[in-house]
Amino acid sequence: MPPARACRRSIPSCASRQGCVDFRSDCLRPRELPEARELAQPACEHCGVAACAAPPRNASRPPVRWLHIPKCGSSLATTVLGYACASTVPAWHAVYMAMAGGQVDVRMGHALRARHDLSGARCDGALLLPFTGHHALRPAEARVVAMFRRPAQRLVSAFLDNMHTWGMPRAHKNLLRARGHPPTAAEFARHPGVAGCMAKMLAGHDCGAVVELGGSLVRRAVEVVRTGAVAFVGLTEEWDASVCLFHAVLGARTAPLRAEFRNFGHSRNRAKRSLTARNGACRLRAAGGRCYDELLGGGRYNESVLDGFVDAADEAVYAEAVAVFRRQLDAFPHARRLLIDERALLEPSRPSTYTALLRTLPATGAIGF
Question: How far apart are CA 10 and CA 29, in angstroms?
Answer without folding.
Answer: 9
